[in-house]
Write a structure and sequence with these properties.
Number of strands: 8
Strand content: 35-45%
Oligomer: single chain
Radius of gyration: 21 Å
Number of domains: 1
CATH superfamily: RNA polymerase II/Efflux pump adaptor protein, barrel-sandwich hybrid domain
Structural class: mainly beta
Largest sheet: 4 strands, antiparallel
Order of helices and strands: EEEEEEEE
């Protein structure tokens, strides 16, 4: 009977793939309706004018214009300013 394990790969060598979260359209860039602006887990950034919040907390554009980020009472918001 063996008293040592075989020299195979380690059992704890696993990791999940990155989920590609974050800002996709930055401030000043143009966004068209349907463009994803921010992918996030939870509402770290809140929707303002010209954008909506998806059920997975994704913020996407509903109108065409340039993206603008702002802060109000410690919360971050994203807006679309019509061009």
């Amino acid at each position: 009977m063996a008293h040592k394990k075989g020299g195979g790969a380690t059992t704890k060598n696993r990791d999940s793939a990155g989920k590609r979260l974050g800002v996709k359209v930055y401030e000043g860039q143009l966004a068209k309706p349907g463009n994803i602006i921010v992918r996030q887990r939870g509402t770290r950034i809140y929707p303002g004018t010209g954008v909506m919040l998806g059920r997975d907390h994704t913020i996407f554009a509903t109108s065409e214009g340039s993206v603008k980020f702002r802060q109000k009472k410690g919360l971050k918001f994203v807006d679309i300013l019509s061009a």
